[in-house]
From TrEMBL:
This is Deaminase. Residues 88-171 form the Bacterial bifunctional deaminase-reductase C-terminal domain. The lineage of its organism: Bacteria, Bacillati, Actinomycetota, Actinomycetes, Micromonosporales. SUPFAM superfamilies: Dihydrofolate reductase-like (SSF53597). InterPro entries: DHFR-like_dom_sf (IPR024072), RibDG_C (IPR002734).
Amino acid sequence: MGRVVMYSSVSVDGFVADENDQPGPLFDWLMSGDVPLDESGALKVSKTSYDYIRPYWDQIGVTVAGRHVFDMTDGWDGKPPAGIDHVVVVTHRPAPEGWDPEAPFHFVDGVEAAVAKAQELAGDRLVEVAAGEVGGQVFAAGLVDEVRMDVVPVVFGSGKRYFGSVDAQHLLTDPDVVIQGNRVLHLRYRVTDATR
């Protein structure tokens, strides 16, 4: 089974969005360079960020996100973002009325069931879990193998926390990746069995 990675851009003080669910400048780094990150050419990053992010994106088979993110993005119009094969949506509600049943989205109740479904779909590829409330629940359940953060030099002061409402202390290993890009610091932490 593929590894489970919790990932997002995050403010220096640990938020993935402000109080109004707005990311503010958290994704500005995706337009701060001259190397196209995807085929659209809309995202351009530094060469350093490209060399780190592109191989990671290419390994992702499935993204796990909460219903709130799904609703905010209008379900990505039924097409998983960034060329990902499937999206598993953690929700207590059914698919939206009129939703195309052929779209590669799977609506699952509970984080454990969502991760199991995502790993089944991903095979040997990575399962990416969106940081925030659902990501924090997956992390607290001991199902995350790796934490990746793109730390952006902004302080929000309040908002939606990277680890959601996790209320217990968890120790991670020292970061095994620390890469400085334009307007971003890429960090990767492994989650050891001792922290699960």
